[in-house]
């Protein structure tokens, strides 16, 4: 019986192709927006978490807002890592300066730090070396630049040993960071690293008082413990004032980020689900028209022996088939759109399988929900009234 | 086979009460070829609807094969229509987007007869109305006479105990009408019960017995 109803439903869908397609369009658009938006949100989430991960998940950043007239000095820093929970420490100050060479000039973000920074942040020089403690102690004018600065300011990557001017002061390039291969966005970031002490001399905005530094925990698993140790050390240093400093835990940043992107995915999914719902109303609308149009057919079927349940099943299956077909076409389109996004945007988003199942289930639900009323209306028709109907 | 016992059907139009059937009693036996004749508005359509279990009597009792119809539910009535009654309508009432074969097959699908058996019955029925060659044509590709023969084949296929024809020749020219009537004679000669409703005296005369209905009364039961 179900097979027969399926056949009949298929017949009635194909006998009015344009109308069936327009009816499906609502579902198609709904499914496409649901699948594409959620897939893109998921893809964006994982690329964001990846880039946060690449910053180092065992990273703690401390910024001091109130130094109690007893500012932190560079020489004091190593006292903080004199325990098992913390492994490395580096001061960070940053300033935007103009870097120039005979080739070109650009505005570059310059970080003043120490050699430990490379280990904490996972920076690796492609050529040359990173900063050393002697560079910091001697205030040498040496610089490590990233690949973008090398190619854009110097004109090529292989520039170790040459000089670059920062706000007119000459710095010797001792290292060039390896080019980041994963994304194009990173290519437009101009970054360079010089000894902390040299940055103090280069700009007025940075002083010997350290306001920001970063610490790496001994392991990623003991982040909370490391944070606690660091907090108690800082409290001792700054007279038990919790408001004097802030510690940012990289893993809690990650958690916050994940909850933000999850909310985003949920929000986008919700909006898409609404459009799917609207598509369902479209199905109901057309089904109601179809029931009225086919009143006579219903009458004939009833006269020759179709019961209420049979008529009901026929129209319900028709609604279900329309919504499922729309869903499948929608999934097909979504797949195409994601492929196009991947090619155009040079990313690799994958269609989220769970959202495919979700949209299938949702479409079926909508088919039943919005098919039920028209189907019931058809089933309730009295055979004599239906036979007499001249539409 | 068919027994009407004081059957009345009342329609209310506005405040007025119209008795489409007024205490009608009659009896049709198994294997009879009976025509029911009456002018339009006489209540013959109401009579046909009640005989065909498409409608219920408001008063009195209608027995089909000795069973009082009032006792059945809607689904059971659908079942009875499906198994016992073969309808033939004035306007053929074929389903437009189905081929002749599919139209004839439809009541058999509702009977849940397996596919190979359905095929056989459909072929047999269409051969009996000499339309085996037009199996895959849709109603709009056929003449009125052919469409009516498909409708008759549809009635034949489910092997009903009663053929109920409502003005079967009403939409056809006289030559085609004659062919259709011959088919009814043939069905009758094979032992089928046929009730033919018409306003045409000439058609009515061809039946073995005529029942005349006027203003809701079954007036005259005469042998012809």
Automatic annotation (TrEMBL), chain A:
Protein's name according to its UniProt entry: Putative ABC transport system permease protein
Keyword Cell membrane: yes
InterPro entries in alphabetical order: ABC3_permease_C, MacB_PCD, Macrolide_Exporter_MacB
Membrane topology, record value: Multi-pass membrane protein
Pfam families reported in the protein's UniProt record: FtsX, MacB_PCD
Domain named MacB-like periplasmic core: residues: 20-232
Family designation: Belongs to the ABC-4 integral membrane protein family.
Signal peptide region: none
A molecular function GO annotation: transmembrane transporter activity
Transmembrane intervals: 21-41, 264-291, 312-338, 350-373
Compartment annotation: Cell membrane
Presence of the UniProt keyword Transport in the record: no
Keywords, comma-separated and alphabetical: Cell membrane, Membrane, Transmembrane, Transmembrane helix
Coiled-coil regions, chain positions: none
GO CC annotation terms, alphabetical: plasma membrane
Chief place where the protein resides: membrane
ABC3 transporter permease C-terminal domain location: 271-383
Superkingdom field: Bacteria
Automatic annotation (TrEMBL), chain B:
SUPFAM superfamilies: P-loop containing nucleoside triphosphate hydrolases (SSF52540)
UniProt keyword annotation of Ion transport present: no
Entries under Gene3D superfamilies matching the protein: P-loop containing nucleotide triphosphate hydrolases
Top-level taxon in the UniProt lineage: Bacteria
Family note: Belongs to the ABC transporter superfamily.
Protein name: Putative ABC transport system ATP-binding protein
Key word ATP-binding present: yes
ABC transporter domain sequence ranges: 2-224
Family annotation (InterPro entries): AAA+_ATPase, ABC_transporter-like_ATP-bd, ABC_transporter-like_CS, MacB-like_ATP-bd, P-loop_NTPase
Keywords (A to Z) from UniProt: ATP-binding, Nucleotide-binding, Transport
GO cellular component, one term: membrane protein complex
Gene Ontology terms for molecular function: ATP binding; ATP hydrolysis activity; transmembrane transporter activity
Pfam families in UniProt: ABC_tran
């Amino acid at each position: 019986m179900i097979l027969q109803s399926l056949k009949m439903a298929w017949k009635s869908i194909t006998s009015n192709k344009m109308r069936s397609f327009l009816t499906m369009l609502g579902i198609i658009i709904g499914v496409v927006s649901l699948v594409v938006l959620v897939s893109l949100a998921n893809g964006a989430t994982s690329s964001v978490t990846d880039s946060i991960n690449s910053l180092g998940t065992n990273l703690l950043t401390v910024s001091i807002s109130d130094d109690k007239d007893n500012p932190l000095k560079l020489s004091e820093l190593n006292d903080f890592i004199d325990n098992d929970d913390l492994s490395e420490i580096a001061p960070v100050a940053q300033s935007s300066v103009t870097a120039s060479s005979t080739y070109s000039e650009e505005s570059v973000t310059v970080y003043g730090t120490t050699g430990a920074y490379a280990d904490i942040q996972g920076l690796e020089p492609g050529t040359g070396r990173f900063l050393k403690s002697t560079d910091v102690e001697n205030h040498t004018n040496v610089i490590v630049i990233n690949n973008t600065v090398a190619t854009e300011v110097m004109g090529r990557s292989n520039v170790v040993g040459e000089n670059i001017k920062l706000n007119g002061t000459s710095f010797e390039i001792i290292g060039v960071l390896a080019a980041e291969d994963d994304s194009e966005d990173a290519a437009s970031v101009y970054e360079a690293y010089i000894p902390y002490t040299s940055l103090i001399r280069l700009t007025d905005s940075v002083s010997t008082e350290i306001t920001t530094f970063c610490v790496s925990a001994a392991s990623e698993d003991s982040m909370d413990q490391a944070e606690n140790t660091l907090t108690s050390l800082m409290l001792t240093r700054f007279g038990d004032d919790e408001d004097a400093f802030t510690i940012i835990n990289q893993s809690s940043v990650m958690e916050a980020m994940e909850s933000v992107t999850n909310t985003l995915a949920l929000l986008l999914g919700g909006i898409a689900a609404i459009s799917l719902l609207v598509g369902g109303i479209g199905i109901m609308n057309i089904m109601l028209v179809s029931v009225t149009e086919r009143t006579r057919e219903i009458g004939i079927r009833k006269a020759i022996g179709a019961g209420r349940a049979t008529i009901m099943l026929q129209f319900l299956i028709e609604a279900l088939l329309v919504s499922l077909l729309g869903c499948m076409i929608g999934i097909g389109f979504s797949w195409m759109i994601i492929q196009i996004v991947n090619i155009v945007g040079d990313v690799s988003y994958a269609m989220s399988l769970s959202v495919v199942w979700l949209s299938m289930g949702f479409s079926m639900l909508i088919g039943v929900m919005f098919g039920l009323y028209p189907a019931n209306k058809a089933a309730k028709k009295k055979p004599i009234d239906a036979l007499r109907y001249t539409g | 086979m068919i027994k009407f016992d004081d059957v009345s059907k009342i329609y209310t139009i506005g405040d007025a009460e119209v008795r489409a059937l007024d205490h009608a009693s009659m009896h049709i036996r198994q294997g009879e070829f009976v025509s029911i004749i009456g002018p339009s508005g006489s209540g013959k359509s109401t009579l046909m609807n009640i005989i065909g279990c498409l409608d219920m009597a408001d008063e009195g009792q209608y027995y089909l094969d000795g069973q009082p119809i009032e006792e059945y539910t809607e689904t059971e009535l659908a079942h009875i229509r499906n198994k016992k009654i073969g309808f033939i309508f004035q306007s053929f009432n074929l389903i437009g987007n189905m081929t002749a074969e599919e139209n004839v097959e439809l009541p058999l699908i509702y009977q849940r007869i397996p596919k190979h058996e359905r095929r056989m019955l459909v072929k047999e029925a269409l051969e009996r109305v000499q339309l085996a060659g037009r199996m895959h044509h849709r109603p709009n590709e056929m003449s009125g006479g052919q469409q009516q023969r498909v409708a008759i084949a549809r009635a034949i296929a489910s092997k009903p105990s009663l053929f109920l024809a409502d003005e079967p020749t009403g939409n056809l020219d006289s030559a085609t009408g004659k062919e259709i009537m011959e088919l009814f004679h043939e069905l009758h000669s094979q032992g089928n019960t046929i009730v033919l409703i018409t306003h045409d005296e000439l058609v009515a005369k061809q039946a073995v017995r005529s029942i005349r209905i006027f203003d809701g009364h079954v007036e005259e039961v005469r042998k012809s």
